[in-house]
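>> Question from a student workshop board

For tomorrow's exercise we were told to take the sequence and the ligand below, predict the bound structure, and bring the output to class. My setup keeps failing. Could a helper post the expected result so I can at least see what it should look like? The ligand is calcium ion.
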Amino acid sequence: MKFRMLAVAAAMLLSAAAHASSPVFIENFDEYAAGGLNFVFPANTWTVSGGTVDIVPEGSQFYFLPVANGEYVDLDGSTNAAGLLSRTIAVPVAGEYSMTFELAGNFRNGGTEATTVTLGSTTATFTPSSETSTQTITITGYSTGTSLYIAFQDASHDNIGSLLDNISVSAVPEPGNLALMLAGVAALGAVARRRRG
Ligand SMILES: [Ca+2]
Ligand SMILES: [Ca+2]
Ligand SMILES: [Ca+2]
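>> Workshop helper replied:
Here is what the output should look like for this input. Compare the format with yours to find the bug.
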Protein backbone atom coordinates (compact mmCIF):
# COMPACT_ATOMS: atom_id res chain seq x y z
CA MET A 1 0.00 0.00 0.00
CA LYS A 2 2.80 2.40 0.97
CA PHE A 3 4.61 1.47 -2.21
CA ARG A 4 1.58 2.33 -4.31
CA MET A 5 1.37 5.76 -2.68
CA LEU A 6 5.06 6.32 -3.33
CA ALA A 7 4.61 5.29 -6.94
CA VAL A 8 1.72 7.74 -7.33
CA ALA A 9 3.80 10.52 -5.76
CA ALA A 10 6.69 9.75 -8.10
CA ALA A 11 4.36 9.75 -11.10
CA MET A 12 2.97 13.14 -10.05
CA LEU A 13 6.48 14.59 -9.75
CA LEU A 14 7.45 13.25 -13.18
CA SER A 15 4.23 14.63 -14.64
CA ALA A 16 5.01 18.05 -13.14
CA ALA A 17 8.49 17.90 -14.69
CA ALA A 18 7.07 17.01 -18.09
CA HIS A 19 4.42 19.71 -17.79
CA ALA A 20 7.09 22.38 -17.27
CA SER A 21 8.17 22.04 -20.89
CA SER A 22 4.75 21.91 -22.61
CA PRO A 23 4.15 24.90 -24.92
CA VAL A 24 2.72 28.13 -23.53
CA PHE A 25 2.07 29.39 -27.08
CA ILE A 26 1.75 27.84 -30.53
CA GLU A 27 1.01 29.37 -33.94
CA ASN A 28 0.69 27.64 -37.33
CA PHE A 29 -1.10 30.51 -39.16
CA ASP A 30 -3.62 28.01 -40.59
CA GLU A 31 -6.58 29.88 -39.10
CA TYR A 32 -5.74 32.69 -41.55
CA ALA A 33 -6.44 30.45 -44.56
CA ALA A 34 -8.61 33.16 -46.14
CA GLY A 35 -5.57 35.46 -45.95
CA GLY A 36 -3.57 36.84 -48.82
CA LEU A 37 -1.22 39.61 -49.74
CA ASN A 38 -0.48 42.40 -47.24
CA PHE A 39 -2.45 40.50 -44.63
CA VAL A 40 -4.03 42.41 -41.75
CA PHE A 41 -4.26 40.22 -38.65
CA PRO A 42 -7.30 40.35 -36.35
CA ALA A 43 -7.06 42.53 -33.24
CA ASN A 44 -5.15 41.09 -30.28
CA THR A 45 -3.16 38.67 -32.44
CA TRP A 46 -0.14 39.65 -34.52
CA THR A 47 0.82 43.22 -35.40
CA VAL A 48 2.55 44.19 -38.65
CA SER A 49 4.31 47.55 -38.64
CA GLY A 50 6.61 49.50 -40.95
CA GLY A 51 5.57 47.45 -43.99
CA THR A 52 3.66 44.29 -44.88
CA VAL A 53 3.73 40.47 -44.77
CA ASP A 54 1.70 37.97 -46.82
CA ILE A 55 -0.19 34.83 -45.83
CA VAL A 56 0.61 32.20 -48.46
CA PRO A 57 -0.49 28.57 -48.91
CA GLU A 58 1.68 25.55 -49.61
CA GLY A 59 1.54 24.35 -53.23
CA SER A 60 1.59 26.38 -56.43
CA GLN A 61 4.74 28.55 -56.47
CA PHE A 62 5.42 27.30 -52.92
CA TYR A 63 5.63 23.67 -54.07
CA PHE A 64 8.87 23.19 -52.08
CA LEU A 65 7.13 23.61 -48.72
CA PRO A 66 6.19 20.43 -46.82
CA VAL A 67 2.62 19.37 -47.58
CA ALA A 68 0.12 19.57 -44.72
CA ASN A 69 1.83 22.61 -43.23
CA GLY A 70 -1.07 24.73 -44.46
CA GLU A 71 -0.55 28.49 -44.47
CA TYR A 72 2.79 30.27 -44.03
CA VAL A 73 3.86 33.86 -43.57
CA ASP A 74 5.94 35.45 -46.33
CA LEU A 75 7.88 37.94 -44.21
CA ASP A 76 8.33 40.34 -47.13
CA GLY A 77 4.83 41.42 -48.15
CA SER A 78 3.79 43.00 -51.43
CA THR A 79 4.55 46.67 -50.93
CA ASN A 80 8.38 46.54 -51.29
CA ALA A 81 8.63 47.05 -47.52
CA ALA A 82 9.02 44.00 -45.28
CA GLY A 83 6.93 44.51 -42.13
CA LEU A 84 7.84 43.79 -38.54
CA LEU A 85 5.62 40.86 -37.47
CA SER A 86 5.29 40.95 -33.69
CA ARG A 87 3.13 40.23 -30.69
CA THR A 88 3.37 39.98 -26.92
CA ILE A 89 2.22 36.75 -25.30
CA ALA A 90 1.31 36.07 -21.68
CA VAL A 91 3.57 33.59 -19.89
CA PRO A 92 2.94 31.99 -16.49
CA VAL A 93 6.10 33.20 -14.74
CA ALA A 94 9.13 35.40 -15.37
CA GLY A 95 12.07 33.36 -16.59
CA GLU A 96 13.75 31.74 -19.56
CA TYR A 97 11.75 30.55 -22.55
CA SER A 98 12.63 28.77 -25.79
CA MET A 99 10.97 29.37 -29.15
CA THR A 100 11.08 26.85 -32.00
CA PHE A 101 9.93 27.81 -35.49
CA GLU A 102 10.29 26.72 -39.11
CA LEU A 103 11.95 29.08 -41.57
CA ALA A 104 12.40 28.54 -45.31
CA GLY A 105 14.26 30.60 -47.90
CA ASN A 106 12.16 32.37 -50.51
CA PHE A 107 12.80 29.73 -53.25
CA ARG A 108 11.68 32.26 -55.86
CA ASN A 109 15.04 33.47 -57.19
CA GLY A 110 14.97 36.28 -54.66
CA GLY A 111 18.49 35.80 -53.29
CA THR A 112 19.52 35.14 -49.71
CA GLU A 113 17.26 36.56 -47.00
CA ALA A 114 18.30 37.95 -43.62
CA THR A 115 15.57 37.38 -41.04
CA THR A 116 15.94 38.92 -37.58
CA VAL A 117 14.11 37.11 -34.78
CA THR A 118 13.44 38.40 -31.26
CA LEU A 119 12.34 36.42 -28.22
CA GLY A 120 12.24 38.54 -25.05
CA SER A 121 15.83 39.52 -24.27
CA THR A 122 17.34 37.77 -27.30
CA THR A 123 17.68 38.94 -30.91
CA ALA A 124 19.32 36.76 -33.58
CA THR A 125 19.58 36.94 -37.38
CA PHE A 126 19.25 33.93 -39.68
CA THR A 127 20.13 33.93 -43.37
CA PRO A 128 18.47 31.04 -45.18
CA SER A 129 19.58 30.89 -48.82
CA SER A 130 16.91 31.13 -51.49
CA GLU A 131 16.99 27.35 -51.91
CA THR A 132 16.59 26.42 -48.23
CA SER A 133 13.46 24.40 -47.52
CA THR A 134 11.98 24.60 -44.04
CA GLN A 135 14.55 24.32 -41.28
CA THR A 136 13.66 24.11 -37.60
CA ILE A 137 15.34 26.81 -35.51
CA THR A 138 15.30 27.28 -31.72
CA ILE A 139 16.28 30.39 -29.76
CA THR A 140 16.00 31.13 -26.05
CA GLY A 141 15.35 34.41 -24.23
CA TYR A 142 14.13 35.83 -20.93
CA SER A 143 10.68 37.29 -20.38
CA THR A 144 9.93 40.59 -18.69
CA GLY A 145 7.62 39.47 -15.90
CA THR A 146 4.68 37.55 -17.28
CA SER A 147 4.81 38.95 -20.80
CA LEU A 148 7.10 37.84 -23.60
CA TYR A 149 7.76 39.75 -26.83
CA ILE A 150 8.12 37.84 -30.13
CA ALA A 151 9.12 39.43 -33.46
CA PHE A 152 10.22 38.52 -37.00
CA GLN A 153 11.64 40.97 -39.55
CA ASP A 154 13.05 40.43 -43.02
CA ALA A 155 15.80 42.76 -44.19
CA SER A 156 15.00 42.55 -47.88
CA HIS A 157 12.33 44.72 -49.43
CA ASP A 158 11.62 43.06 -52.79
CA ASN A 159 8.31 41.31 -51.95
CA ILE A 160 10.05 37.89 -51.86
CA GLY A 161 10.70 36.95 -48.25
CA SER A 162 11.62 34.12 -45.91
CA LEU A 163 8.70 31.82 -45.13
CA LEU A 164 7.70 31.30 -41.50
CA ASP A 165 5.54 28.62 -39.86
CA ASN A 166 4.94 26.47 -36.76
CA ILE A 167 6.03 28.65 -33.87
CA SER A 168 6.10 27.05 -30.42
CA VAL A 169 7.17 28.72 -27.15
CA SER A 170 7.93 26.73 -23.99
CA ALA A 171 9.38 27.50 -20.57
CA VAL A 172 12.95 26.34 -20.08
CA PRO A 173 12.84 24.31 -16.84
CA GLU A 174 15.05 25.81 -14.14
CA PRO A 175 17.98 23.41 -13.71
CA GLY A 176 17.63 23.73 -9.93
CA ASN A 177 13.95 22.77 -9.94
CA LEU A 178 14.48 19.92 -12.35
CA ALA A 179 17.39 18.57 -10.27
CA LEU A 180 15.23 18.78 -7.13
CA MET A 181 12.40 16.89 -8.81
CA LEU A 182 14.73 14.18 -10.10
CA ALA A 183 16.39 13.90 -6.69
CA GLY A 184 12.94 13.54 -5.13
CA VAL A 185 11.96 10.79 -7.53
CA ALA A 186 15.28 9.00 -6.94
CA ALA A 187 14.80 9.22 -3.15
CA LEU A 188 11.26 7.83 -3.41
CA GLY A 189 12.58 4.99 -5.55
CA ALA A 190 15.30 4.20 -3.00
CA VAL A 191 12.75 4.14 -0.16
CA ALA A 192 10.47 1.89 -2.19
CA ARG A 193 13.32 -0.52 -2.95
CA ARG A 194 14.33 -0.68 0.72
CA ARG A 195 10.75 -1.48 1.78
CA ARG A 196 10.47 -4.25 -0.78
CA GLY A 197 13.90 -5.71 0.12
CA1 LIG B 1 0.95 26.52 -41.27
CA1 LIG C 1 5.60 38.74 -50.69
CA1 LIG D 1 14.11 38.94 -50.76
